[in-house]
Amino acid sequence: MTDTDNHLAHRLRAASRDREQAVFAERPDGGVTYGRLWTQAEQTAAALVAAGVRPGDRVAAQVEKSVEALALYLGTVLAGAVFLPLNTAYTAEEIGYFLGDASPTVFVCDPTRRAALDTVAAAAGVGCVLTLDGAGAGTLAERRVAAPPIPADVPRAATDLAAILYTSGTTGRSKGAMLSHGNLVSNAEALVETWRFTAADRLIHALPIFHTHGLFVATNVTLLAGGSLLFHRKFDADAVVADLPRATAMMGVPTFYTRLLAHPGLTADATARMRLFVSGSAPLLAETHRQWHARTGHAILERYGMTETNMIASNPYAGERRAGTVGFPLPGVEVAITDPESGAPLPQGTVGMIEVRGPNVFRGYWQMPDKTAQELRANGFFVTGDLGRLDAEGYLAIVGRAKDLIISGGFNVYPKEIESLIDDLDGVAESAVIGVPHPDFGEGVVALVVPAHGGAITPVAVQTALDGRIARYKQPKRVLMVAELPRNTMGKVQKSHLRDAYADLFTGDPGGHKADLT
Ligand code: AMP
């Protein structure tokens, strides 16, 4: 294939074009060179075109993490089509919704799920179902080898779609965020520059690849820089610790960091050659930041982003990485803090809605023009749904999701403020503060507290510690000890689950609630 301008593929390929033998991914069974990756991507494009995929068509995939799955992503882009990765945890019924909504031309799934998924694919009108397993085998691989090569990359402009990623959909229907070639290129370029990625980098990749973090942040940045991945099928603390001495960087969710801190192999020696630890997708506890620094000498760099906007802000590479903040907007990205009701800009230092504008911001929700119009303003700003504050030096702090805001007795309560105080108490590992229906106050503040290993903190001790430190209306009306907080695969605490579990705490049978969510 020669390059006509396929905006994303062309740029991702530029750094490795003359380095076909350079290693793209190292995995336990050996290395995959850039030459092999792109040959496989071209063959995949040819197989998709032979299966009827036309420019702009969707190619959906629910597959195990593998380098071949990344070649499927790149092959889809080369074919001018739109990649639609799906969480491996989704049930057949859930997959049915996505296939029906996005009407892909081809759906690729794991061979072990084929029988169950064939039926939902047929019901959704998907004409071609192919398979790909975690080792890269399946009918897609067979077709790849057999397909006649296509003469050139399919040209695609910056405004054309490259991917649709469905949001995790904590409320209502899951929405398909449409991401263009330009969205992905501009964001990868901004991150390579901000985080100083080069061909010498070896990035520990233990994130899933159906989400923006593992698929775009980690993979596109590495491709654009021409570096290599130390490819992990999933996060395993032993395996990651073993790779630290030969890596230069790692990108992870906060749970990676807390699990690694619990591993005796995490030492300053083991991380001596690392230059960068990045955390995102969920808030990193200030305590984790401190412990990591004390143990390894490295300050974790926290960044902020979302499916619809790619990455928005990052702590600085050089300069203070401030715990509890996500740093500054990336190059080319604007952040505004506005009144959640009126949308009017708020004075610096005030908590408000985080809005974002820039080349990173998506092109809207797939087949949801009304939803798109609600969240993507005519002036180009996207309303993130996150609440935050800019400090005097321009660091952005996230205070929580707007929908997690608690209104108790008419007063606004920001859960993060209370969680930070509780998390700082001796004997506390972490906490989640939620609002649940209350007969007098509308919502009552409830704190779920996970004790630290061996900690003996009691609900009364938590309440006493908060007394006098924050206004009474913010103080939890109930504190409950729990063994752990429910999290999704990206490490986000699922507050909607907690709100459901404790919905009748103040309104129902006082003894009837679940006191422990293990
Ligand atoms: P997703 O679209 O699944 O990537 O989720 C995006 C959401 O994750 C954002 O809107 C934030 O609420 C949250 N998020 C991402 N990064 C951070 C961070 N560093 N701190 C706090 N929340 C974050």
Oligomer: single chain
Listed once per kind, the bound small molecules are: adenosine monophosphate
What is the end-to-end distance?
Answer: 54 Å
CATH architecture call of the largest domain = 3-Layer(aba) Sandwich
General description of the model:
The chain has 518 residues and is of the alpha/beta class. 47% of the residues are buried. The strands form six sheets. The protein has a nine-stranded mixed beta sheet. Residues 510-518 have low confidence and may be disordered. The chain has three domains: 7-20 and 30-183, ANL, N-terminal domain (Rossmann fold, 3-Layer(aba) Sandwich); 235-401, ANL, N-terminal domain (Rossmann fold, 3-Layer(aba) Sandwich); 406-512, GMP Synthetase, Chain A, domain 3 (2-Layer Sandwich). It contains 15 helices and 24 strands. Helices cover 29% and strands 24% of the residues. It is globular and about 75 Å long. The chain binds adenosine monophosphate (AMP). Adenosine monophosphate binds next to strand 13, strand 18 and strand 19.
